């Protein structure tokens, strides 16, 4: 299929490098050139490390010439600025964390380094990973490459903006209530929120440790498989990680779609979605049907209490993490970040513990109902068109809460459930902004999600489309 | 400027804001209480939740179809 004005995927870059058609130095130079052009418009980076990236690219090319075949050798990536590196500073998008030097390196960064990836800088994010819009009072808002007047989604805002603009080949984000999926959704990308326990959080900045997950934002489902295979799996430094084996990335996308039961859920489980998103979901279901999937209907339990339970856990844990700084350095927080965390101090311990204690029985009940017949669910990701920056101006605490609840209504329940989700791009709206859905599966069934994503991307002609550089 | 109270062991907020925070916490509490009721038993989280995730996965998920 001919796809003009399309950005190269990470998988395609790796194939080109393996075949000697391009070097890591050439690819990295190209990324740095593009970054220079895009950064003033999208503010995706907090810091650009051009010299270090070029040194790493030269080393990667030298290693490849000597027979090194690591899966991400020389791939120019960048990540949300919240992963610790020994002896380096990571801001967490805040005015506080940048004072602290990392004592060790995050496992996901170590694993990407071991796979040969290189980094071109540190990506912008919502302050302390708190906020679904991508607003940041300290480093400036990241802006959506499809229309810089619109939000990127957050909290992995720079990850979404940079990958969509084609200034990196992939990026890590974190997801506590939707923070991988929302920027993927709003920037037209795939975003994989792994099963809780599938990917180590060691060395990642916590927002709410019972809900936090780490995963990739990419232009292709194959790219997500490449990065997920590199970072997932048991880590003795994170005792919540599963000992379940992680397949090679090629196996993560090869599950046959013929006969796979993909369910849609009638009745607007997260409220009414806008008409264009609904039409895009119906078209996506037809595409999946053409790929051999059996399209069925499923019902799911009411997700509103799951949202509240996630909220209780998220706010309580965030308040515990930030209590000292909120008391001693309140002026170092943006008002909306500070106010979002305050309620955590007022939630009774029993409510937090009830939400935690019920979690196992709730996920068992959800899976028994939702996946009684279905292998995966196709669900709304957001119920509104991608908002503008002006529409999400966070002036009043009350208004913030309403807006946050609206944006995260469909994503946050799955952090409580711990289930894997794949934000999947479905093309552009009449206003030129991304449309999307999220695919949800049983625990540790990332392979089903990525195989569905890969099947869809082979059939859809919009995947990897390049936004125009603003004049 | 409205006087700020010392609440929650050192947080400073106006009485109006303290009421908003209490109202939000109550909204969350009632949302949880509407449907989330743990059974009587041991809950040494996160281990019980992690076991539930493993139990809900199909055998071989993440590996062979």
The termini of chain B sit apart by 64 Å
Beta content of chain A comes to 5-15%
- Measured on Cα atoms, how large is the radius of gyration of chain A? 20 Å
Number of helical segments of chain A? 15
Assembly state of the chains shown: heterodimer
Question: Can you put this structure into words, describing what you see?
Answer:
The complex is a heterodimer of chains A (about 475) and B (about 60). Chain A has helices spanning about 10-20, 25-40, 50-65, 105-115, 155-165, 180-185, 220-230, 275-290, 305-330, 335-340, 350-355, 360-370, 395-410, 410-415, 445-460, and strands spanning about 45-50, 75-80, 120-125, 170-175, 190-195, 215-220, 260-265, 295, 375-380, 420-430, 435-440. Chain A is of the alpha/beta class and about 475 residues long. Chain A has an eight-stranded mixed beta sheet, sandwiched between helices. Chain A has a three-stranded mixed beta sheet with strand order 1-3-2. In chain A, helix 2 (about 25-40) crosses helix 5 (about 155-165). The longest helix of chain A is centred in the C-terminal third of the chain and has 25 residues, at about 305-330. Chain A starts with 9 loop residues before the first helix and ends in a 12-residue tail after the last helix. Chain B has about 60 residues and is an alpha+beta fold. Helix content of chain B is about 45%, strand content about 10%. Chain B contains two helices and two strands. Chain B has a two-stranded antiparallel sheet. In chain B, a hairpin with a 3-residue loop joins strand 1 and strand 2 (about 10-15). The longest helix of chain B is centred in the middle third of the chain and has 19 residues, at about 15-35. Chains A and B meet through helix 9, helix 11, helix 12, helix 13 and helix 15 of A and strand 2, helix 1 and helix 2 of B.
What labels describe this entry?
heterodimer, A: 471 residues, alpha/beta, eight-stranded mixed sheet, three-stranded mixed sheet, B: 65 residues, alpha+beta, two-stranded antiparallel sheet
């Amino acid at each position: 299929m001919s796809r003009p004005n399309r950005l190269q995927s990470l998988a395609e870059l790796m194939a080109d490098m393996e075949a000697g058609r391009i070097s890591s130095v050439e690819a990295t130079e190209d990324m740095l050139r593009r970054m220079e052009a895009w950064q003033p418009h999208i503010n995706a980076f907090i810091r650009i490390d051009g010299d270090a990236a070029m040194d790493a690219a030269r080393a990667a090319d030298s290693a490849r010439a000597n027979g090194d075949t690591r899966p991400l050798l020389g791939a120019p990536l960048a990540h949300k600025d919240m992963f610790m590196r020994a002896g380096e500073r990571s801001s967490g998008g805040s005015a506080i964390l940048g004072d602290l030097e990392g004592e060790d390196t995050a496992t996901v960064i170590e694993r990407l380094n071991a796979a040969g990836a290189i980094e071109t800088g540190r990506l912008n994010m919502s302050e302390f990973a708190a906020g679904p819009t991508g607003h940041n009072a300290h480093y400036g808002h990241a802006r959506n490459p499809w229309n810089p007047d619109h939000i990127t989604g957050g909290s992995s805002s720079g990850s979404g903006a940079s990958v969509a603009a084609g200034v990196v080949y992939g990026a890590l984000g974190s997801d506590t209530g939707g923070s991988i999926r929302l920027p993927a959704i709003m920037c037209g990308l795939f975003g994989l929120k792994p099963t809780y326990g599938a990917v180590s959080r060691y060395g990642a900045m916590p927002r709410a440790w019972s809900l936090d997950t780490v995963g990739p934002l990419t232009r292709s489902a194959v790219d997500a498989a490449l990065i997920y295979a590199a970072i997932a799996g048991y880590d003795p430094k994170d005792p919540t990680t599963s000992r379940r084996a992680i397949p090679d990335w090629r196996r993560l996308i090869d599950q046959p779609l013929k006969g796979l039961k993909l369910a849609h859920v009638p009745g607007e489980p997260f409220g009414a979605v806008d008409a264009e998103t609904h039409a895009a979901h119906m078209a996506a279901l037809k595409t999946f049907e053409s790929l051999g999937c059996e399209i069925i209907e499923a019902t799911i339990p009411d997700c509103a209490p799951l949202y509240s339970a996630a909220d209780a856990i998220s706010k309580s844990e965030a308040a515990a993490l930030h209590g000292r700084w909120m008391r001693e350095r309140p002026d170092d927080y943006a008002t909306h970040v500070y106010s979002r965390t305050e309620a955590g101090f007022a939630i009774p311990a029993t409510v937090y513990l009830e939400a935690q204690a019920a979690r196992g029985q709730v996920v068992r009940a959800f899976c028994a109902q939702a996946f009684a017949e279905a292998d995966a669910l196709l669900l709304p990701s957001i119920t509104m068109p991608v908002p503008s920056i002006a529409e999400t101006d966070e002036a009043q605490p009350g208004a913030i809460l309403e807006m946050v609840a609206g944006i995260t209504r469909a994503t946050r329940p799955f952090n409580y459930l711990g289930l894997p989700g794949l934000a999947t791009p479905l093309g552009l709206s009449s206003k030129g902004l991304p449309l999307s859905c999220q695919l949800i599966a049983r625990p540790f069934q990332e392979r089903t999600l990525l195989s569905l994503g890969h099947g869809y991307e082979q059939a859809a002609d919009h995947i990897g489309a390049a936004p125009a550089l603003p004049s | 400027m409205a006087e700020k109270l010392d609440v929650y062991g050192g947080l400073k907020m106006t009485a109006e804001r303290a009421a908003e925070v209490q109202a939000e916490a109550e909204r969350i509490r009632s949302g949880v209480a509407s449907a989330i009721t743990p059974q009587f038993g041991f809950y040494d989280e996160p281990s019980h939740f992690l076991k539930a995730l493993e139990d809900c996965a199909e055998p071989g998920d993440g590996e062979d179809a």
